[in-house]
Amino acid sequence: METRIERIKKQLHSASYKLTPQREATVRVLLENEEDHLSAEDVYLLVKEKSPEIGLATVYRTLELLTELKIVDKINFGDGVSRYDLRQEGAAHFHHHLVCIECGAVSEIQEDLLEDVEAVVEKRWNFKIKDHRLTFHGICHRCQDKDKDEEPNKQNKIKQSFE
């Protein structure tokens, strides 16, 4: 984690910003919860546990700065809540997401699946792509398995109601 913080510190310095204690606390929370797609409020509550003096506005400003510098990506899964996701180091593009419409689970796809699509778009529409975001909405394997397990019970209930 320390080496990643050091690299983020260098990114900030190259853009004429400092890694203040408040910014570092925010970055540490994002690193510690990298799998979780935290909202600004979630980040604030976790930062507050470690640094009670930090205010919500400071966390918001830090998240916006980190987004601007492409250290984090601001994402929305269609529920009206902005979430923050650390960008993979060296990644040319934002990673993709799978969102379960039943349980709300979010999974990530790290590989870039759209290179061919980008080439077609750039050539056909003369459009220089800088980034892309792709979110698939569907039903995760856990919910599918749960539905399979519940299916025999549903069939029995329907059968009993006709008897």
TrEMBL record:
Residues engaged in binding Fe cation: E115, H132
Domain of life (superkingdom): Bacteria
UniProt keyword annotations, A-Z: DNA-binding, Iron, Metal-binding, Repressor, Transcription, Transcription regulation, Zinc
InterPro entries reported in the protein's UniProt record: FUR, Fur_C, WH-like_DNA-bd_sf, WH_DNA-bd_sf
Cofactor binding note: Binds 1 zinc ion per subunit. Binds 1 Mn(2+) or Fe(2+) ion per subunit.
GO MF annotation terms: DNA-binding transcription factor activity; transcription cis-regulatory region binding; zinc ion binding
Pfam families given in the database record: FUR
Binding site for Zn(2+): C100, C103, C140, C143
Cofactor: Zn(2+); Mn(2+); Fe(2+)
Keyword Iron among record annotations: yes
Keyword Secreted: no
GO biological process: negative regulation of DNA-templated transcription; regulation of secondary metabolite biosynthetic process
Family of the protein in this entry: Belongs to the Fur family.
Name of the protein: Transcriptional repressor
